[in-house]
Amino acid sequence: MAERLDGTVALITGASSGIGAAAARTLAGHGAAVSLVARRKDRLDELVEEIEAAGGKALAIEADVTGQDRARNAVERTVSELGRLDTVFNNAGVMLLGPVEGAPTEEWDRMVDLNVKGLLYVAHAALPHLLRAAEDGPRGVADLVNTSSVAGRRARVGSAVYNLTKFGVGAFSESLRQEVAGRHVRVSLVEPGVVDTELQSHLREEIREQTRERFAKIEMLQSEDIADAVAYIVTRPRRVAINEVLIRPTEQA
Ligand code: NDP
Question: Is the ipTM, as predicted for this complex, more than 0.85?
Answer without folding.
Answer: yes
